[in-house]
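Each letter names a residue; structure tokens follow underneath. Both lines appear below:
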Amino acid sequence: MSPHPHDHSHDPHPGFPVDPDVPRSDVPLLPHQVGRVLLQRRRVLAAIALGGAIGALVRWSVAEALPHDKDAFPWSTFVTNASGCLAIGVLMVVVVERWAHRPLARPFLGTGILGGYTTFSTYAVETRGLLASGEPGVALLYLLGSVVVGLLAVALGMRLTERVIR
């Protein structure tokens, strides 16, 4: 193991992203190590939990503000996931360019707030619901449109933020 716990220079899959918040000593995590890791990471876990609660409340608010019938396009989840993708694009640039010295920024904002705000499970359930309601065209539009718009939103968020920061 390398002297620095976050050194991933000997990764078996070079070129793939590695979470800088997870030291190699945590992977794989054995059952008897869980308590130690939870105790050591309590600040990060608290930041994620608080952020997740905030993100989930905001998502619930959007769903309440934009209700839909089970056979109609689920705008609330679409808007939530697209705006969450835009925000993650912004956050990726800001964390790397400006907040690299703030170790709780990414766990709180990215994993916590945006993880609690966006929802893949609701997206999947709603797609299935549209199919079950006899709306395959709407289901396909929602299924593909969410992915395309999400990817474009991440790229847009990154590019706009890079221009603003530089």
Notes: The chain has a mean pLDDT of 87.
